[in-house]
Amino acid sequence: MDDGREIILRSLGFLKLKTLSISGCDELEYVFPISISPSLLNLEEIEIVNCKSVEEVFELGEAGEGINEEEPRLLSSLTRLKLKWLPELKCIWKGPTRHVSLQSLIYLELQSLDKLTFIFTPYLAQSLVHLETLCIDDCSGLKHLIREMDDGREIIRRDRDCKLQNIGRGI
C-alpha cells in the first residue's frame, strides 16, 4: 500500500481486538500485513473460512523490519486458530517467525488447505507449550508439520522429510 491506507491502518491499530472472524471474502488475498501485525498483541481467536483468494495469513516482513526487540512477541495471546476452505493459502506465516510466539495457542484447526505445504517453523514449534488440539483435515498439499531452517533461511530439506500418511483424510 503506497497511498496512505497503510498510515490509516497503523494509526487505527487493533489494540483491543480479541476475536476476528472472516468468512466468504473472495477477493481478500492477505489478511494481516506487516504494518498492522504489531498491533495484534491482544488477539485471542482467529477464524478465516471460505475465502477463495487468501494466499497468506500473517506477513511478518523481512528480518527486523517493523519489529522492536523489546516489544512483546506477536500473537502471544492467540489461543485458537481456525483456517478452513482456503484453496489458495500457501503459507500461514510469511517471513521470519522469531518475533512470533504461539505460547498461548491451545487449539489449531486446518481444513481444505490444498496449497499449504507446512504449518510451523522450528521457532514457532518450540513455542507451542500449551497446544492441546491439532485438527488437520483434507490438506492434500501438506508435506511437513515443521519446516526446517538452514543458515537463517527457512527451507524444506528432502533428506529429513516428515512422512504424513492419509493427510487428506485427517489425522
Which descriptors would you attach to this protein?
plant defense; globular; disordered C terminus; 3-stranded parallel sheet; 12 strands; single chain; 2 helices; Plant_NBS-LRR; At4g27190-like_LRR; disordered N terminus; mainly beta; 171 residues; 5-stranded parallel sheet
Structure description:
This protein is mainly beta. The protein has one domain (5-169). 8% of the residues lie in helices and 28% in strands. It contains two helices and twelve strands. The strands form four sheets. The protein has a five-stranded parallel beta sheet, with no helix packed on it. Strands 2-4-6 form a three-stranded parallel beta sheet, with no helix packed on it. The longest helix is centred in the first third of the chain and has 8 residues, at 5-12. The protein is globular, with a radius of gyration of 16 Å. Mean pLDDT is 78; it is low at 1-11 and 155-171. Residues 12-139 form the Disease resistance protein At4g27190-like leucine-rich repeats domain. It comes from Salix viminalis (Common osier).
